[in-house]
Amino acid sequence: MITVENLTKRYGGFTAVDDISFEVRPGSVVGFLGPNGAGKSTAMRMMTGLTPPTSGRATLLGQPYRDLHNPGRQVGVMLDASAQHPGRTGREVLRVAAISIGVSKTRVEEALALVGLNDEEAGRRVRNYSLGMRQRLGIAAALLGEPRVLVLDEPANGLDPQGIHWMRGLLRRFADGGGTVLLSSHLLHEVQIVADDLVMIGRGKIVAMGSKEELLSRGGTSVSSTDDTRLAQLLQAADVPVTRTGSGLVVEAEPRVVGEIAARESLVLLELRSGGSEGLEEMFLGLTAATSREGDAA
Amino acid sequence: MNSETSTETQTGTAPVVGGGTTGTASALEGRPGVPFGRTLQAEVRKMVDTRAGRWMVIVMAALVVFILAAFVLWGPAEDATFDNLLQIATLPLAMLLPVIGIMAATAEWTQRTGLVTFTLEPRRGRVVLAKALGALALGLVVTAVAFAAAALANLAGTGAWDLDAAAGAGLVLALLIYVLQGVAFGLLFLNTPVAIVTVLVLPTAWTIATQVFSSLADVGRWIDLDSVTRPLFAGEMAGQDWAQLGTGVGVWVLLPLAVGTWRVLTREVK
Fold first, then answer.
1. Does residue B24 form part of some domain?
2. Which domain range does residue B257 map to?
3. What is the pLDDT of residues B26-43, one digit of tens each?
4. B30, part of any domain
5. What is the span of the domain harbouring residue A249?
6. Is B51 within a domain?
């Protein structure tokens, strides 16, 4: 369980994290989504005791991170997969961590197997690792102490689509076993695959929060038919707000309402689905544009 | 495993996101952090498990052996006594041992491994202590190698065992002071090249400064680390020498150690 209460971090006049509060319950994989520089990493460093907050607090399993007994056994943390000594082998990185956490060498091999690093790869120096392999090593380190909470910063960064799906399976199993996962990402499609719930952050503030379905359905219903013009007229006649998009219509009503109207008039529907990611995507792009340095998101 | 049933209800004001089916999980019971022995073991291992660390130790040992062999082969035969050989063997060590301390102190920041180290043991003061003790232990091992090599060389040399206990102990203490100085400067700058250059250039800078400003010579006897450790290496410590050693170590070891530790404790780990 992760609880964040009014967490704030200011650097001089700049507010990196602005009064954020949320609670992640066991059994869930929560995506912490926001554009670069939104404050995700700063928030995660405050949760894990690496950065002192200006105000507010964060607890993991009911305790501030710094008060946890043998934190490696309780909370698995990966804040930057690239932050490894390039001269150590992957296996050595885990062995050193295992000494500190107090787990056996056998557990190191288990963790390597869990993330799919084979014997040859584990014996290679981290210098020669691809970003995807570093991510797997970082996740192995986080899982080493069999923790109940995972805090992962950009874990899917550098993974291929297959790797992202693998990660989804891994984290889902972890959560199904009663674990709590908070992972960050700056890519909507990535976090859509891996996480079930989202906390969206922009300019240090939480802008949206909830289950993926809930947030996605804010975008209304997407529909396309053989005759979109006629469908739009019918929907407007039924007092349902409609907007035309490139590929069809976006309707602010349940898919069922749209389907019934179309069926009554014997219109052929080609596509009918809840939301689509348009609403969330628009919101996310808006955030990105607002925080991007260039400002010309043309 | 303490699994007492937790009946406390969460009264937090934070909005909940996700899950909620498995109830609340509580933390493991126990003192914060990790037992010190494990931190020490991990820190010592980190000093020698990289190529840079391992080669540092190998190069030091090789230099000692090389210098001793050269002295026995080509040096003045009558000078090849145990005491003399040991003095010669420790010359490169006095210069290189601080680097062990520096690398131990700076790696967490230059390679950013601190992100892992300080999440596994959030009480950073204990990590600093483990690094200092680990570097001293490693320094002792290297010094022991120098003693053994000097003894072997002495068998090939004059075979005169002229080292008294005071000189031997003084030598070890002096070398440990240099190791600790390395740790201190590493913590102070948290940057390997800057710390190494500073430690190596400092004695020379003092020498130049005392030549330019002759008044500094008097001060130097109290705070120039090279001159305050000279009687220690020679095993000739007298009353005032200890006081001068104390001030020198205070200025160049303890002060940077204190400031550096404070930096590590308060610095944001990124």
1. no
2. 36-266
3. 788 888 999 999 999 999
4. no
5. 220-274
6. yes
A191 lies in some domain:
yes
Task: Please tell me the predicted confidence (pLDDT) of residue A219.
Answer: 64
Domains held by chain A: number: 2
Cβ contact B255:B188 at 8 Å: no
DSSP code per residue over B15-41:
PEES--SS----PPPS-SB--HHHHHH
Q: How far is A273 from chain B (nearest CA, A)?
A: 23
pLDDT of residue B240: 87
B1 touches chain A (CB under 8 A): no
Q: Residues of A95-115 as b/e, b for ≥16 C-beta within 10 angstroms?
A: bbbbbbbebeeebbeebbeeb
> Which of residues A68 and B201 earns the better pLDDT score?
A68
Question: Rounded distance, CA B189 to CA A45, Å?
Answer: 23
Same-domain check for residues A245 and A135: no
Token reading at A46: 């405050």
Q: How confident is the model at residue A135 (pLDDT cuts 50, 70, 90)?
A: very high
Alpha-carbon span A87 to B118, nearest angstrom: 20
Contact between residue A188 and residue A33 where contact means Cβ atoms under 8 Å apart: yes
Same domain, A32 and A90: yes
Judging contacts by C-beta atoms under 8 Å, the chain B residues touching residue A60 are: 27
| Mutation for testing the A interface, residue in B56, B115, B126, B192 having most A CBs under 10 Å | B115
Question: What was the pLDDT predicted at A279?
Answer: 62
| Cα distances (angstroms) measured from residue B90 to each of A105, A190, B85, B146 | 38, 58, 9, 7
Give pLDDT tens digits for B40-62.
999 999 999 988 888 988 999 89
User: Is there a domain that residue B27 lies in?
Assistant: no
3-state secondary structure of A197: strand
What is the distance of C-alpha B117 from the center of its chain? Answer: 18
Query: Which chain B residues touch A73 with a CB distance below 8 Å?
Result: 28
Lookup: tokens for A258: 């749209």
What pLDDT is recorded for position B2? 43
Residue of chain B with shortest Cα separation from A198: B17
The pTM of this model reads 0.85
Residues 68-107 of B with CB under 8 A from A: 107
Do A148 and A93 belong together in one domain?
Answer: yes
